[in-house]
Amino acid sequence: MLSRKLVDIIAQNSNLSQEDRTILEYGLKKIILLTADLIFTVILGVLLKIAVESIIFYFSFMLLRMYAGGYHSKTELQCKIHSAIVTILSLAFIRVMPDMYGCNAFLMLLSSIIIAFMAPVEAVNKPLSDDERRINRRVSLMILLILNVLSVVSLILHWSYYHRAAMAALLAVLILMIMGKLSGERLKYHEDQL
After folding, report:
1. CA 116 to chain centre
2. Read out DSSP for 135-178?
């Protein structure tokens, strides 16, 4: 894997402990995967003629998703497949969504309210400590506030590209949060039956 090769190159010129090598490899792997996701999103955005919207979607979605939580796949391959599906569907939604400002604003506000009440949603395979839960909630609310303020400004200025991208990000995060909540409830139900 590329991250391991990079760590080997870095380790040749320094005295890294095994723990430091593991941490560095994990960090490099995450950076490579996020970069690959961004490249995929932008290429798809260019093909759909919504390059700016794709970039806005990517950063809005990733930032909010990181703190709001929701469904997480069991394997890295499933995660990549699910991420690609979410990206494709979200960008297709942005591409075909009409500029119905009142309806779009209502949908964004409703999504934001639901996310604000639910965040953060723990995934079965990504439990949160009390401190993480408190911090993630606070950061989720701040990101929601920023996205909504920017969305209102974009609506006033008739910059529909920002509003559509932010709304698609909110809807995608909301759907993943609901899926995460349902999968967690299903697991609790099965544990209670045993």
Report:
1. 15
2. HHHHHHHHHHHHHHHHHHHHHHTT-HHHHHHHHHHHHHHHHHHH
Task: Report the alpha-carbon distance of residue 55 to residue 168 in Å, rounded.
Answer: 12
Q: At what angle do helices 51-68 and 160-193 cross, to 10 degrees?
A: 30
Q: Cα angle vertex 120, ends 91, 137, to 5°? A: 110
Are 172 and 109 contacting, i.e. CB atoms less than 8 angstroms apart?
no
Distances (CA, A) of 138 to 67, 92, 135, 168: 9, 31, 5, 22
CA distance 159 to 99: 10
Using one digit for the tens of pLDDT, what is the confidence trace for 160-191? 788 889 999 999 999 999 998 888 765 554 45
Residue range 81-103, pLDDT digits in tens: 999 999 999 999 999 987 777 77
Determine which helix (DSSP H) or strand (DSSP E) holds 40, and give its type and residue range. Answer: helix 18-47
CA–CA dist 78, 5 (Å, integer): 24
Note if the pTM is more than 0.70: yes
